[in-house]
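ok here's Pectinesterase inhibitor domain-containing protein, seq below lol
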Amino acid sequence: MTISGTSSVLTLISIIFLSITPSSTSNQITDTEIKHLCSKTSNLVQCFKLLKSDHRTSNVDAKGLSEISIDLTNNKANKIHSQLNSLVKATRDLHMRNIYNSCSKNYDDAIRDLEVAKKNLKSDAYKNMHAQVKDASEEIKSCEKMFNGASSSDHAHIKKKNQYLEFLVSIVKVTADNLNMKDDSDSETILRDLCSQIERSKECIDLIKSQLSRFEDSGCNNVAGPVIDLAREKAEQIRDMLRELHEDSNDDKFKGKYESCSSNYNDASRNLEEAKRSLDSNDYQNIPKQVDDTNDELEGCRREFDENAFDPAHIRDRNKEFGLYVDLLKVAIDRLLQRNESDDCNYYYDGGYDYGWSYRN
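and the structure came out like this:
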């Protein structure tokens, strides 16, 4: 009875311990998610069975699943590579020996590509994996083409094994693409958070959704770079439009306004170029001044076309467009400076440094 009571107490303690211990599988990928990924290959059932055959799959996240797919593919590639090397030595047929030798070199390169892909995976450089996976696939296809017209002499069934390995590489591609999608989603979350600090947040979100690819490699610490690039491109676009209006206008009053605004936007572009140089050289403290100067140039053009002025070319609308980029840039720089101090991608953003900035352009 005492033993039974002690056992019950120990069981209860174990349950309590498990309930308060953080789970190491909070990001564990589910069978449903694996099947969804496998549906993007040519054989869902075979893909799922293969991935589940590795004991690690029972307790793994998306990154771990990608590693498993690389390991499975690399193991198979090494086995075929060893077989090809043996065939080179054992085959008397000169033509087939040349094919096996060529394929051996293809497999050597494919294995190296997969190893580099795994290194990129380990270092979270997911976007760099695409090139290596593609190169590995091309090496296998090159080997497969060698057997066109020689299938009757392929007694070792290398062509069939090539096709299976190509299928394995397709699984690697799917799992790597999945990681890139998660990265893109993270970038969008960061940018949506920035837009939430701006009065015209919905317009800001619409803007970044159309330009999301520009932020792919920016990481959590530096969305400011792509924002500066976008703002500068918009400034130069509006400047060029104003120059054309200045040349085409027959009204001296408007010619003067267009020339003045063109000069404003040219200076704004130059200020943004300086801000980008400061950013690239990690001279962050100078950037707020350069952004302020950009905003001053915007205000200069706004004065030329205030609410009561006749505005046949809708310059007020162009100023409003550029103002959105400037507001987004202010928030991005605020975030960059705060994060530069904290080095934390998950810190709480409290609204920025006190530069006297408003986000209502």
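fwiw Confidence is low (pLDDT under 50) at residues 9-26, 341-356. kinda neat tbh
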